Amino acid sequence: MPRPKRTPGQAHPFLKWAGGKTQLLPELIGRLPPGIAHGEITSYVEPFIGGGALFFALHEHHTIEQSYLYDINCELILCYTVIQKDAEALIGELEHLRSEFFKRDEEGRKAFYYEIRESFNRQLSLISCEGYNRDWITRAAWIIFLNRTCFNGLFRVNQKGGFNVPFGKYKNPDILNAENLRNVAKLLADTTIRQGDFTCCRDVVDDKTFVYFDPPYRPLNEKTAVFTSYAKDGFDEGDQVRLAEFFRELDAKGAKVMLSNSDPKNTDPDDCFFDDLYSGFTIKRVPATRMINSNGAGRGVINELIITNYHVDLTTTSGL
User: How does residue 220 score in pLDDT terms, banded at 50, 70 and 90?
Assistant: First the structure.
């Protein structure tokens, strides 16, 4: 399936996100519940918003009355909230960071990166996702700056919640895309954004809701485990089991539910972890290019899982 083309004015992810769904979009779009196109689905819920690739693509082509975005990662929710409430102020902060970065030589840029990273980590204990204040604007700018200039565009934290990705050495990083931030702000204007566990969405889900779960992937091996550390508390197999139970709970409510995850059979053909967890639902294996080792040579085409509680006939659907 070809990747959908962006149209002028279309909002797209403003963060590079490990495990982001941009490349998997054609597969996800082709498996949207038919009720979206027919107006039978009136709300969209994404409990692990991450980079938001499906959220942005879906809203470019369909009218959804209400959207609800959640994530356990406070820093991520802070970013979305700042764009929703103060996009122009955020753009101003990013313009300053971009100017300071590009006026330096390579060593100066590296030093500036670590200076911002240190400031970011020094304020960890002072940041809360409760309420809203203008201190969030500077922090959101730091997050976007670090994400755009760090190695591989990762968002990774240590057990204390500190951002620990090294400098990326990009010659011309895209630190500020003001047009996209304004487009994102327009889309988020009427969207509910909340920080919390994936179960926090329970009360807003009914039989007219489409829910997309994109949790931290179950690592294929120890080398890929590092890429799922986007929240200090992690997401282990117990959480995967709890998520599967919640998937069944929302299915019982009549909601249309989709979930993506890694396919353990890529490395162990006998590993039926997800096949067992989601027994009775539609499980499809689709190809994706991922980093499956600790260096660039480890990139390769592997299967990922798309699990739904409904069936889509791909011979008749046209996706978006």
Answer: low
CATH 1.10.1020.10 fits 75-172, yes or no: yes
Q: Quote the pLDDT of residue 224.
A: 45
Give the C-alpha separation, 302 to 263, whole Å. Answer: 8
- CATH homologous superfamily of 25-72+196-308 equals Vaccinia Virus protein VP39 (3.40.50.150)
Where exactly does CATH 3.40.50.150 map onto the chain?
25-72+196-308
The whole-model pTM stands at 0.89
Per residue in 12-57, pLDDT (tens digit) is 999 988 766 888 999 999 999 989 988 999 999 999 999 999 999 9
